[in-house]
Amino acid sequence: MSHFFASIVPWFIAAAPSRRLRCVTLSVAFLSVVTLAAAAQTPAGADLERLANGVRVHRGDQTMEITTLRDDVIRVRSWQGTSEPENSSWAVLPEALRSTGQATPEPAGFSTGKLHVALGPGLMFTVTDNIGNILEQDAEPMVCRGTDFRIYKHRTRDDHFFGLGDKPGPLDRSGEAFTLWNTDQFGWQESTDPIYKSIPFFLDVRQGRTLGVFFNNTFRSFFDFGREKADEYSFGSVDGPADYFLLYGPTPKQVLSDYAWLTGPTPLPPLWSLGFQQSRYTYSPESELVEVDHRLRADKIPTDVLWLDIHFQKNNMPFTIDPECFPNFPQLVKNLAADQFHLVVITDLHIARQPGIGYDPYDSGVAGDHFLKMPDGSTYVGTVWPGPAVFPDFTQQRSLAWWGSLYKPFIAEGIAGFWNDMNEPAVFNTPTKTMPDDVQHRIDMPGLLKRTTDHREIHNVYGMLNSEGTYDGMLAARPNERPFVMTRASFAGGQRYAVTWTGDNSSTWNHLRMTMPQLMNLGLSGFSMAGADVGGFAGSPPADLLTKWLEVSAFQPIDRDHSAKGTRRHEVWVDGPAQEAIRRHFIEERYRLLPYLYTTTEHTAHDGVPMMRPLFVEFPEATTDGHPFDLEAGGSEFLVGPDLLVAPNPSPEEIAPYEVHLPPGTWYDYWTGERFERAAKIATRDLEQRDQLHSVQPLMITPTLDALPVYVHGGSIVPIEPLTQSTEETPKGPLTLRVYPATDRTTPCTGEVYADDGHSFNFRQGDYARVNFSCALQQDGSMTFTVAPQQGRFHPWWTEYRLEIYGWTPTRHTASTDSSKLPLTAAGSAWTVSFPAKPNGGTVQIQ
Fold it and tell me: What is the DSSP string of 623-686?
């Protein structure tokens, strides 16, 4: 018996034909599926109908349809009876949902060119790649209890799971179980579940092959990655469709690209959103915000954004301004802009139930019938910050547009961005912390069946729809300006409309530790632009904790210092000059790195690969058995873009030395230029062989308050700009290109810089600048550095390049272009040479 049939015979036996499958929709995306031998037939008692893009199988009154959207994405739909269910999604882009690929028939399934789907008994199936590796396999037929259902898949000890958004806990979800139900969880801890977001997408990494699974169901759902049964993982819901997509790599980057194709990438944000951001609950009255403005500029702490929490509003009523605490609000906004600050203000989604006082959000909402109803037709009322409040029905397109229109007055006054909070939705004084399940939503949106449903179906997408309305409202008011929206609650696909953060975290060393895996898993779930409240929201961080948090956050996508009312202040200067100097140093380094960070976000907007990423995303072959390299590093190390590795202390409150785990290849210390060489890690289970082969001295770091280990991958070219105090300030001086050659002379070093105006959509019409760089080590010991011709017509701020070359020594100490000789000088551990930046590029020869 072949290995393949040996693996599926027990699976066939376990498929009890009497098991009743629930009426659901299943969607699966893969890149390769194993072909069954010719002897394999259609499952007993089932009729197989061939489709151009897949198969449809009928068994009794159950139908399962498996189709290919493209050769690495497959969709599976299953339903009961003769009526096909609605073909729609709140998360999947319409063009992806309509996509269709070509299926090649096989004896018990089909292939796509990259995947093979093989059907078995009980309407179960297996997916394999072209050489027979099982990528996904049903462990048993779907289990149904009333409207509840659960889908079971085989799990091996080599499966490692990542994603599901900002769930607390380890980076690897293996052995854990989770619930997806957006919940306001102030002061959540490591064991708290659920919290704010529901992103039913995860990556299964097995022996170097990565499969993505997106469960397209908005009801309360559940994921078990081996906690109940070690040899199975499962997911399901209390109701709705069993609708999931499988996306095959085999690399993690390909899966992330597939997911971005399916649900949309994070759009290119405004440049200022990459700057340092200062917030507090709350700066009130306005004189307090002005003091912060002046101190930041006086102390030369680079900053781009100031935030206002709910107390700038009158009686906490959204879309109002407190005339007593903020008597000169329009002038305040202008003054902040003159000091090069962008102001972001909060707008919770509840609307105060205040009739008869001229409160336009309420009056216009009632007039337009935009608020949620109870089953008896009355308006639902819940208690939140302003007291009794009503809630928009974001499932109506016209209500979504009405919500967006509420932002026009703020935008006209110069507000730069908006913060959608409390949008799980959070409701006070209820056991569930949210509105009742029977609240009615009247769906009337393009691409969706017009109907009324209850809150159980919409709860998890409510926050995403809130941010969509805000985003669209900003676009309507400023069609050529990139919106900036931050949301607390969201769903898969929500990255199209808003950045996010991890909610009301705590001022503890453990929460600093948890920030790294949370943000990496958010990035793997589509939210590339994400952050955590620096210093912790709940509680008062001691000075050293705040300093270490500010160091790490300088290398994360969103760098926002935020704190709760009644806590110790978090501003950079609060703990005296020594702590302030350390904190300022790392914020300044973030600003020097802005060309690299902005270039990385521009790539994210195309390929979906997050700015902050686990090590296995860039180095899927870093271990000989294919297990994720992050398991070696304990989940605390992370990459910023493809080239920078940040290695914070995995136990940040401890002072003992810790080991930094660098992936295979050449690495340089970002701060000193020291070079390190590393080989691939062998299988962690083979301890004896590991000890024999790992002869390289471990890289041990003794923690100090003022240091954060950062490394640069050999073969990269990192763009650095002169220090500015905000992104509104034009850098003065050359664009520095730090060159880090790989030890292998056959490997060229490469890099790129992208620039545009930083705020508009003009880049879509070619108003951008993209310049690629490369260097090559020649046989005679010289180096050739090449600047490719600029792409795009934008005129960037720099007129000169300055090379800093590390890990290499010239033999003749000369440099030249085609037309002139250039001065080559030693500066610390680098060799430097400067030359004009020309649109048509050029070559520099260094000997």
Answer: BTT---THHHHTT--EEETTTEEE---SSTT--S-EEE-PPSEEEEETTT--EEEE--B--TT-
